């Protein structure tokens, strides 16, 4: 969704170079004002955000939509990107959503609309089809260039400058036509994804109003920039065009005026407050909720900001007040644990994380690992077996999270189990993409492990690996 891939003015980039950039863009469909080819680059090296509370909420947004799109059993993963712009994109079986999207969207329905659109791309296999179109476009471009080069050579040989010039124009024209055909195809796919999103929202009994709000945001942002985009040289339809195409269909739904449940809206607001506090975007949570400064969301953001600004005692008083209001909120307990760790009180932090684990309906791997980490940081040898147990339980649910292996290595180190500590360190480097360091630690671990044991085999797998995991 959104305005994406606004390409440079004619002449500023050679057409074949632009077609190569489109080849990169073909791996992702983006939403928002970030160019598609930038979004695609992000899909290979994105600054990922991990947070149990936000992941749980976005999962609740996505689950019914993915089911309605027939994607419920395909292992689609939602990935949070640390970027303040309003954007989302798909790549493979993943939907990437910027934290800026989550914070700027004032209602859950707006985010759900974005997820519905991206689900439309996945359900329609648009990535695979776009790659096929790209291959055709590249063929057209190459043919056009060969014909142009032939005409140029013939003109030069005959001493006819006009024929040579026409050959150059033919070469560029073929590439330009290929690019425009590809962009036209992608605009069609975007409109298809929009219509699919409307269908998914209807099937799940939700309003499409959030989608229209998003397109209005893009239209206003485009108007403020004063940008004049050639509608034939962009990969997405213009925002006003999309509104015109969807508004009638959206308003026909009996769910159009349906509002998000109050409890869901509150969770959404608390998510926005957390993102604002951690990123400093929008002047912080208190400014974001200046119309309701005593609301739970504003005070939650204030407690987090206080913690981040180095005042754990004051932050603890604020989070405890929130826990009094919502004693069964696992994320308040999780935040209490983080504050206590900063206050150098890992024993009480472990108790807070333990309560968070017990209260967490999603059984988040992140909270479980935080509990294990707090136990490890107590330094008590009696706590180390429990620390290892909790860390391994979290890693079992989230096996590609590097930090978990780092904590596990520390716990094993305190227990004096150097072989396991080095193997965990190898895994930490492996999942961080540092393959050379991973091999070094795996080799060291293997020398201390029993030959043929599961741990020895894991070390051998790392030693034999050629590329880091994505």
UniProtKB/TrEMBL annotation:
Q: Which InterPro entries match?
A: Mito/Outer_Membr_Metalloprot, Peptidase_M48, TPR-like_helical_dom_sf, TPR_2, TPR_rpt
Instruction: Give the CDD domains listed for this entry.
Output: M48C_Oma1-like (cd07324)
Q: Which SUPFAM superfamilies match?
A: TPR-like
Its needed co-factors are:
Zn(2+)
Single Gene Ontology MF annotation = metallopeptidase activity
The UniProt keywords, alphabetically, are: Hydrolase, Metal-binding, Metalloprotease, Protease, Repeat, TPR repeat, Zinc
- What is the annotated signal peptide range for this record? none
**Pfam families membership:** Peptidase_M48, TPR_2
- Spell out the residue ranges that the record assigns to TPR repeats: 330-363
Question: What region holds the Peptidase M48 domain?
Answer: 51-248
Q: Which PANTHER family match?
A: METALLOENDOPEPTIDASE OMA1, METALLOENDOPEPTIDASE OMA1, MITOCHONDRIAL
Protein name (record): M48 family metalloprotease
State the organism of origin: Phyllobacterium phragmitis
Q: Lineage in the entry? A: Bacteria, Pseudomonadati, Pseudomonadota, Alphaproteobacteria, Hyphomicrobiales
């Amino acid at each position: 969704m959104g305005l994406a891939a606004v390409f440079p003015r004619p002449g500023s980039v050679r057409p074949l170079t632009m077609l190569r950039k489109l080849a990169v863009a073909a791996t992702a469909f983006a939403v928002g004002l970030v160019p598609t080819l930038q979004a695609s680059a992000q899909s290979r090296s994105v600054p990922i955000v991990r947070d149990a509370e936000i992941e749980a909420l976005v999962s609740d947004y996505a689950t019914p939509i993915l089911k309605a799109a027939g994607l419920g059993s395909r292992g689609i993963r939602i990935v949070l990107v640390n970027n303040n712009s309003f954007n989302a994109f798909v790549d493979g079986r993943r939907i990437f959503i910027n934290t800026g999207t989550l914070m700027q969207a004032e209602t859950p329905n707006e985010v759900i609309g974005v997820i519905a659109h991206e689900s439309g791309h996945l359900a329609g296999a648009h990535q695979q089809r776009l790659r096929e179109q790209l291959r055709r476009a590249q063929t057209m471009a190459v043919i056009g260039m060969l014909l142009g080069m032939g005409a140029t050579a013939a003109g030069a040989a005959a001493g006819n400058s006009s024929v040579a010039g026409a050959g150059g124009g033919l070469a560029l024209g073929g590439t330009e036509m290929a690019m425009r055909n590809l962009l036209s195809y992608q605009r069609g796919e975007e409109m298809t994804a929009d219509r699919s999103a409307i269908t998914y929202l209807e099937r799940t009994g939700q309003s499409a109003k959030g989608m229209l709000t998003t397109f209005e945001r893009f239209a206003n942002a485009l108007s403020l920039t004063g940008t004049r985009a050639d509608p034939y040289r962009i990969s997405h339809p213009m925002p006003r065009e999309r509104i015109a195409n969807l508004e009638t269909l959206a308003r026909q739904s009996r769910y159009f005026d349906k509002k998000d449940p109050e409890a869901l809206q509150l969770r959404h607001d608390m998510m926005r407050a957390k993102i604002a506090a951690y990123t400093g975007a929008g002047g912080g949570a208190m400014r974001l909720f200046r119309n309701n400064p005593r609301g739970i969301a504003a005070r939650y953001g204030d407690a987090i900001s206080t913690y981040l600004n180095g005042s754990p005692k004051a932050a603890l008083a604020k989070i405890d007040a929130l826990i009094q209001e919502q004693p069964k909120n696992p994320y308040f307990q999780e935040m209490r644990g983080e504050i206590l760790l900063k206050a150098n009180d890992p024993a009480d932090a472990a108790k807070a994380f333990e309560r968070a684990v017990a209260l967490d309906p999603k059984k988040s791997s992140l909270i479980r690992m935080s509990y294990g980490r707090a136990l490890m940081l107590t330094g008590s040898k009696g706590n180390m077996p429990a620390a290892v147990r909790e860390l391994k339980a979290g890693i079992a649910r989230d096996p590609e999270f590097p930090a978990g292996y780092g904590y596990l290595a520390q716990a094993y180190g305190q227990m004096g189990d150097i072989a396991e500590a080095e193997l965990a360190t190898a895994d930490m480097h492996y999942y961080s993409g540092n393959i050379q360091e991973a091999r070094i630690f795996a080799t060291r671990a293997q020398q201390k492990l029993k030959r043929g044991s599961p741990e020895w085999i894991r070390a051998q797998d790392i030693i034999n690996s050629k590329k880091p995991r994505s």
